[in-house]
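Hi P.,

Sorry for the delay on this. The queue was packed all week, but I finally got your sequence through. Input first:
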Amino acid sequence: MQGQNTLEQDKTPGCACDSACSVTPLPVRVETEQTGASGAVFRIPSMDCASEEGEIRQALAGIPGIQGLNFQLSTRTLCIDAPAEVLPRALDAIRQAGFDPQPVAPLEQGDQHAPMSEGLWRLGASLLLAIAAELLDFFAPETAAYKGAGMAVAAAAIWLAGFSTYRKGFTALRQGRLNISALMTVAVTGAFLIGQWPEAAMVMALYAIAEVIEARAVDRARNAIKSLLDLTPDTAEVRQPDGEWKELAAADVALEAIFRVKPGACIPLDGVVMAGNSAVNQAPVTGESMPVDKDAGDPVFAGTINGTGALEVRVTAAASNTTLARIIQAVEQAQGSRAPTQQFVDKFAAIYTPAVFALAVAVALLTPWLMDLSWMEALYKALVLLVIACPCALVIATPVTVVSGLASAARRGILIKGGVYLEGAHKIRVIALDKTGTITEGKPVLVATEVLPSPIPEAQVLRWAGDLAGHSDHPVSNAIAQGLDRSNGQLEKFTALPGRGIQARTDGQTLILGNHRMIEERGLCSPAIEARLAEHEAQGRTVTLLAMDSQVLAIFAVADTIKESSREALAELHALGVRSVMLTGDNPATAQTIARQAGIDDARGNLLPDDKLSAIEDLQTRYGTTAMTGDGINDAPALARSDIGIAMGAAGTDTAMEAADVVIMNDDLRRIPELIRLSRRTRAVLWQNILLALGIKSVFLVLSILGSATMWMAVFADMGASLIVVFNGLRLLRK
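Then the structure:
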């Protein structure tokens, strides 16, 4: 596949690192392949959502020398681009913010998460102690001894479940920040101090357990695409210099080595088939539902499944740099690109949390005067409000949904380079398409043969045409040769006539196989032949004629045929309300013919790259959000200028794939309506999650003010809402 290195590009502004960075424990540095910039990578096990990313950014904001930060929430890693002497200060600042940065080992791959921050035994013990505290409060007599024992049990439950929460909460409070840890710290501590220690213990235990459940659910979305790596074998059977075959670790196989794949086995590395033929299931990489025939010279991808034939393959990419691995890296990088809805939610949460905190303070101070409540009752209401105010469900609603959408697209062979493009695709109103290789197959095919009346038998005429065409390397001649049977007859005095055709002698006859211009120069055209040529040319076909010295023997029409999938894709786009326009360098007559056959609304021909760029600007002015689809260097300016650029990945050039925002891995236009439908589903789920999170919190906010909500209810409302939005976002992973 061409352009594979472009899958590694980093879309995160201001960062010279990418997710392919790796680092040994300090002070060893690494260098990214894409930019050459150095950076150190650290795993932060407790960094789960965008709010915690924001806290770390804020902690590092005042440290001079940091040139860039690249967060990968999917792997809980942070790449710091800074000189070695600055890193210790940066790590200290992260620790002071309540997080534990850990150097990433050099050979670590995939999402090697640390164990849960709270061990299962701690959570189990905390829950049992919280239940014991509740029982002591309910059944034990009102004596100082029993009350003291109950408080001690409750304190132990809070310490076991809430150590991490308290550490981050006190750090946030010292720095004047109101995050979920700070709110829970204040609420649980306040409840304990006003005598609600059983409830404080149970709230902290339930909160910690719900956090673990939520983290595991979020990881399911983040790890959905990584599950594809499990398809890649760890070993490969490699040919040795003495001709023997030896099984080696895939990571140790050198470039240009030859490995073999047995029938039914999974292909361990990217490569090119050297011997054998088979059908390969490429669904994990390209999303194609049908196996693809492979023969000598064809590329194969790691993680795909060989069919019934044995293959010998030459390695073209290391195990860490296969197409499948780069797709996963690209999806991880895309997760760092904020979607518009996610930007809105982050800004809203930054206002919402302090506002509700201020409301809780007002409830604590004013309700004793306004509602004739005791100070303890007012304080309890305020603490319940603090629990309800936790913005976790709201903040996590968007990234989980976006990650699920990106993973779902990748499974279909659609590589989206950022959440902004996933969400923005729902707004596409018009799509511009290149012709060659996008709508059409990209290679000429013999579509019509006409043998004209002459004394020469038809079989002889076709044999001559096949022999002449077979001796030329011109694409049109190749198409004719492939469409006719060749006898491998001997040709004499073979001459290539640049810009016109070829000439040779065979069977005692001088024959020419040339274009319309050559036949006219030889004076062999007649009105009848001109009429036939005009008819073919009106259909966008390239016409070649076989002639002797005295007359034309046959007419051959060659055309770049339309992909059947293109017709289906365009019909689906029309059903979605998306207008289609073809932009091509071919002549307008050919463009109109192809557009009519494919079902395209409009076609513009004779366009140079600058003309395509102007056409995109015109479509944006007339229709709004415009997408551009292409695969060539001449499409790159238009791809970059469009609102969403879509490159054909399998046949696309490096330049086109780099300029595009979306890459279709198998060159199937039907993936574009799939992209739009997925974008619309993603946006719908995003707003469902936001409304669910805000709706549930609004209901309990009112109940709290009216005195009908308890801390138990508040924590169930908060964490219940978080789990609801997480599992709702995971629905996008369904096929």
